[in-house]
Amino acid sequence: MIKRPSFLFISASDINGGASIVAYQLHNGLLARGYTSKMVVSRKFSNDDSVIEINSYSKKIIHSLVYGDINFPFSYRIGKMIELLKESFYKYLKKSRKDVFFYPASRRILNLINYKPDIIQLHDIHDDYFDISLIKKWSNHSAIFFKNCDLWLFGDWDQNKKEWVLDQTIAKRSITENVKINYIHPSEWVKNKLTGIKLHPKSVERVIKDTVDLQYFYPSDRNIARKALGIDEECFLILTMAFGFKDNPHKDITTVLKAFKKVNQIKINTKLLVVGDSLHKYNEINTKNIIFFEPCFDKEKIRNIYRSANIYVHSTFIETWCLTITEARASGLPIIASNVGAIPEQIINCNYNNLKNGYVNNENGILFDPGSDKQLANYINILYDNESLCKKLGENSRKNIEDFGMEELLNSNLEYYHDVLNSSN
Fold this sequence. Notes:
The protein has 425 residues and is an alpha/beta fold. It is 38% helix and 16% strand. The strands form three sheets. It has a seven-stranded parallel sheet. Strands 12-11-10-13-14-15 form a six-stranded parallel sheet, sandwiched between helices. A two-stranded antiparallel sheet has the order 6-7. α2 crosses α3 and α9 (253-266) crosses α13 (373-385).
C-alpha cells in the first residue's frame, strides 16, 4: 500500500465548466492536505502554477500567425485558413463517427510534470486534445481513474432522439474492455445507464456525487448582491446558467426563453438573468427584461449572481449531475429543472397539488417535462405568486446539501483511491 500516493488530474480546463471545476477542486484539496498533485489541461483559465496547459504545435503556429507573433504578407489570413481547415476536418470525422485521437501534444504530459503519478484521474478528455491510447500505456505504472462526467467513452449523443446512445466505437471499446479502469460515476443514474456494458474484468465502479464549497456558496443578502451587479432590486429575478448554449446540443436555452416570454407578458416585474456564452443567435436576448452576462471566473461575481436571484431554472435534455444546480442549492435557491438524467437526484420534487396549496415538506424544487415551455412558465408563475413557498423551497435546497461539502467529497475520493491501491497489492 502506498501511504501517500501522488496524483495527476487531466481535464479540458481548470475553472471553466462543471466537470473541470470538480477536477480542479479535488486537485487543490489534495494539495492542501500535503499530497503531490498536478493538473494538466487543454485550456488554462486560472493563474495556478500547479496547473499546466498542453501547448500543441499546431495551436502555437495558428496563434502566432493570427496574433502577429509571426508576421509576413497574408500571415493572418493563412493562420485563419489553417484554423478553419483543422476545425472542418475534425467536424467531418466526428460526423462520420470516426475516432480522432491524433493529438501528439498529449503524449508529453508525463514529461511536463516530471514524475510518474501513482494515480491518474481523467475528467473531461474529449475536447480535441487527448490521445486515449495513452490510457493503456499509463495503466502499466499508474492506477487509472475515469470520471464519467458524461457518457462519451461509451457512446454518443443522438440529437434526433435527444439522448445518449450507448454505441461504442472500436477504439473506445478496446480501451474499456482491455484496460483496468476505476470508474467514478457522478450519479446513480450514470451507473444504472451503464449497466450491462462490458468492462475489463478487474475494473471497479463507485458513485461519488459532486458538490461545491459550502463555505463559499451560501445564502446572503439579495439586495447587496444586486447592487454589486447593477440589477434592479425590486424585480423578480429568474436565473439560468450554462456554458456552450449554442454548440452543446444537450443544453436547452430555447425552452427557457419561450417560457420567460409567456411569464413576462403577465408578470411585467420579472427579469431573466442568462449567464452563458454563444447566445447571439437568439433574438430574444435583446429584449429589455433579459440580462445577459458572459461567463466569468470572478468568484465573488459568481457568488453574487446566485445570491441575486429569486429562483434558478435549468432546462436541458440530459444531465449526468449538473454543478450549477448544486451551486444554486448551496446558495439557497428554489429550483425548477427538466426531469431528465440525474437531475431528480438533486431535486426533491414538489408535486403540482402541493404547489397550488403552498404545502412544502422537504422538497426543494420542481421538475418539468423536458422541452415544455408551457409547464416551465406555469411553475415560474406559481413561485412568483407565493413568496413563502419560494422561501421554503430555497431553505430546503441549502438544508438538503449541508452534510456533503468539499471535505466530504475529498474524503470519499480518498477512500476510493486507497481501496483500489490496497486491492492491487
